[in-house]
Amino acid sequence: MSDSVDKYGVGKAAEVAADFLHSILTQPIQELNGLVADKIKFWRFKNQVDILLKAKKYLESKGINANKIPLKSVSNLLEYASLEEDEDMQDKWAALLANAVRETKDYDLTHIFSQILNQLSAQEVAVLDHMFSRCFFKSDRDRPFIEKGEITRLSFTTYYVTLLIFDNLLRLRLIEEEPPKIKFEKDELTYDMDLTATSLTPSTKVRLSEFGVEFVKQCRFR
Fold this sequence. Notes:
By secondary structure, the chain is mostly helical. Helices cover 55% and strands 11% of the residues. It is built from ten helices and five strands, in the order H-H-H-H-H-H-H-E-H-H-E-E-E-E-H. Strand 3 (181-186) and strand 4 form a beta hairpin.
């Protein structure tokens, strides 16, 4: 038994824990003691209902008949989505669900994309959306490299946090860095290229990976 329970008793310990939970959550919780769990369950259930209705409304507006998808895909998607507080992110979850049932796929990535979306913040999704908006002007395979500085200047968040965002998106294989450039040094006397004296210049550009493009598409109403 914990020290807090020994000192205060179970009832007091539960109240102290509930007060702390209330202080750290952005979603207000008024009920204490045994009702906290019920409040959280209801809030998660409400989020699930909202996401299901958004997906249903979109499909109906497009005249799309929903296909059947595995229970595993739906249950995991709704489980993750139920904790989402940001409304724009809830739209991403609803779009992912709607796109999962709108067409039959040879390879269903819904389960994988649910896990990835669950690991992204609203700022990271905004970065992906911006990069996606820069694609496909020349062809359906066009994925240009974009300067990291350009994305940083869009003020999705601070410079330091933006660097962390790049690292996370790279970890998830949603973006890829431009390969480093090889620089050949010139001989100062003859001005001939010295192929033995080379250096690598790290790239400052990133682009969506093909996997990242498909992820963004599946998380958008289209």
